[in-house]
Structures are given as structure tokens and as C-alpha cells.
Design a protein that fits this description.
The protein is an alpha+beta fold and 497 residues long. The chain has helices at residues 13-24, 62-67, 72-81, 98-106, 158-161, 178-188, 209-219, 264-268, 312-315, 360-370, 392-405, 436-444, 450-462, and strands at 27-32, 37-42, 48-52, 58-59, 165-167, 175-177, 196-198, 205-208, 233-234, 247-248, 251-254, 261-263, 277-280, 288-289, 320-322, 348-351, 357-359, 414-415, 431-435, 465-468, 473-476, 484-487, 490-493. Helix 1 crosses helix 3 and helix 6 (178-188) packs across helix 7 (209-219).
Length: 497
Amino acid sequence: MSRKPAWRNMASDALSTHQDHALSSTMLLLRSYGPTAFLLQEDGGTQNFKVCLGEPHTCTCPTFTRERQPCQHICWLLLRKFRLPRDHEYAFQLGLSARQLLEVLQGSHQAKAHRTALDGPAAAAGTPSHNVPGQEVGSVCRKALQAQDVCPICQEGLLQKKQPVSYCRFGCGNSVHISCMKVWADHQRLSDSQEMLKCPLCREDFSSLKLLQEQVKNAAKLFTAAERESPDRHLGVLCYSCRVCPVTGTCFRCTICSSFYLCENCVKKGCHSQHPLASRTTRKEKWILLAASSPGDPRPQDESTVAEPFADSDLERVPAVKVRSGSQLLNEGLQCRICLQRFGLGQQVRTLPCHHKFHTDCVDQILLSSNSCPLDGYVLFSQQATDRNTSPKVICTKQRENELQGLFVPGVALHAQRTKPSPTCGALNSEVLINASFCSRLRQDPCTSPTKKTRDNMAARKTKVHLKDGDNVTVRDRKSAGPELRMTGVSIKADKE
């Protein structure tokens, strides 16, 4: 006869560590042997563990065999599957009696607002389909997703995890992660692609193995390389000062200037110290407002204080397409990873720079308040040196240099004059300079080619120029009634032939 485990009033340090691991890891429920016995597999692992809840709890993993107290697999069942709060007295006991297990199974510890009974009696099974295009005969419609719905295999929230889903087509109509169903199908070891998978919830036919394989293939296209990048690489962020892209480590953003980012080294050098900054260390973290005196000492503030909205005009620059007949977006398994619904005919689909695709109705409001992809944190717009907050003097200097490259007068060297831009339009302001001694040498040098001399003389006769001497500058103008070509800061007068 086994001895009854001692009752605990608080969790031990080792058990608290196991609870942390259970809440931060993903496990797959491969099989149920009854209401309290299950076969689990860690996500990405190959070894299966049998877990039984009772008096006492047991698990076949090496950790439980060594410590003889609830491991992370037992904690995962209690905290994830049965939704026990981690500070509930049943969550850190070595075992539970039959009456206590019944309370856990019935969910008496949960608030009424979170019970599945609130979904209504019609939510227990899917609704039979009626002339729905593309559905098999005898199949049911998919149940609408609720905020509290979880995957029956990994026990993680469907809308929170944002992973592609499939649903039970001939039974309950509940949704399951496609990746979880693949592991479930591998465990069933079906040989024929036409065989039907069993639903992990209602045990009715879920779908054919062939359909699931097609969904797995297409759903893989919804994942991009940006999701696999290190979290401390701020994708899409260009440092305004040193031009590093992407910024790695701590990223800083100006709370006044739009889409203005800096790296940690530039902030330490005092760049853009006139405005308050916000920082974050990973792409998906919230922006934290920094103390004005010390950038290295962040001071938490309300999230709305450091929100990162951008204008509707910027949103229009992100491409969107209308789903038409024959589009690949209609393939099985392709769906918006925000609402987890398929793309339909006539719907608008927006593609972000990280190649993620969403319904415009789902993603637009998120982008208007965050300026980043909701899946991988890729920043859409990062200000460059020629953006609207750049100094006008810098912009005008670059415009002068670009326009001077296309202006050419034979025998005359062109130089940009360092003058302030026009306050009204900031247009090009330059002068054509010619060295007078150089022109004199051209006229006196007998070795100069006649052809070149004639060409230079024609340029001097037909063009109004500023002749630069050693000490003074004189303006020589050949009077002519010919047509005159004028530019801001440059006057060129040509004789009629």
C-alpha cells in the first residue's frame, strides 16, 4: 500500500523552475490513455514520455526518476492543459486525490467567463455545411475561433501563437495547428495517403493524410527567414548617424522625430541629444522611455507615451493585391496569420517587406500603431539622411552636386559655390567660373591646336561668364540680341548663328 504524499503549502525552488520551463516550452500531446494519463513529446524532440496524474503523480522522464517530484511534463499538464494557476495549491502537490482530480477535470478552479460552456451548446460540434464551394460532401463548417481557444495537441492559444491551422472536417469542426497535426499523423503511422486521420478531440475523421500533406507544404511558405533571425537584430532599422543596418543590440528611437533610429554607439557619442529617446533590446519588446540624464538607465513609462505610429500615406506605399480566381493564395494551408482565416476571392492582401502576407483589414490597424510586422518585428520605415527631417542645407548641397554633373560648357570648369540655398525653393545656386590667366594662355600659346582655340573662342563669345582673376573678379559680357537661357544663379547668353 503506497503512502499518501505530504501536503505542501508552497512550491519548492526546484518545482518553481520546472513550472517556468513548462510555461515557456512547447509540448505535444500525442495520446490520451484516459482522463489523467497522457503521452507527451517535447517540440522538436523524438522521445515520448508517459505522464499519469494521481496519488502520487508519475512520469517516465529522467528528471522525475531522479528528483521524485513534479517535473516539467507534469507541470505542463496541470498548468497548460487543465489551466491551473501556478500559485494554486493543487499545482505544487506531489499527488492529488480522486476528489481533487475531479475538481481539476471539471475546471472548478476556472472563472465562469473562461469556461468553454460559454461557447454555447452549438459549439460542441461543427455545423453541417450547405453548398460551400471547395468542401467535401458530408463535411462540417469550421467553428469560429474564440480568444480562449487552444490547440488540443500543444495546448497553446491559437490566436496568440499565430501559427497556421487546419480543422476537423467530419466531426467537431475545431481548429488544430497544422504542424501539430503533422506530428499527430506521424505518430499514427498511416501508410496510405488516402487514409483518414482521427481528430485528437472528437476521434472522428479529421481529414485525409493527402490533404494534410498539402497543407503542410503550403503553410511552410507563410514562414519567412526574418522569423529565424536573432531577436537582438532589429530588422529594417537603419542607424541615422552611422548608417548601420540592421542595428544589433540595444536600439534607440526618437520619440519626437518620425521613424528616427540610432544604434547604441551613436547614442553614447551624444547623437541627437536634443530629443528624448526610447530603447529596446529585442525586436518584439515594448519601447522604454529613457531618462534624459542617462541613456543607459531606462525608465519605464506608459506604452502610449512611446508608441510608434505612422501616417496613412506611408501605409499606402506598402503593396496590396486583390485575390483573384486562380491565385496561389487560394491554395490549402495558406491563410492570414493574424485571424487564421483563409484568403478569399476579392479580399485585399498586403505583403510586408519581410514577405509576410495578411488581410489588409487585419494588419492595417496594427501597422498604424506599431510601424512593424506583428510576427517578426520587422520595421517598415526607417528614416534616411534625405528624409523630411534632414537639414535643408545638406539636401541642397547634394542637389547642387547632382545637377552640376549634367551642366557642361566647353573649355570652362564648373565649381559649386558654397552659398546658402534660396529660402523659398532651395533651388540650385551656382556660378560658372573661368580662370582669366588660363584664357590668356590659350590665346597666346602658339602650340595650341587651331581647332581647340576656335572652339574656346566661340565659347567665350557666345557665353556670359564670370572671369576670375588673381585678385579681383570682373564680369565680361558680349552684347547680343540673341536668345538667353537662364537658371537660378547661372546666366548663359547665346548668339544667333
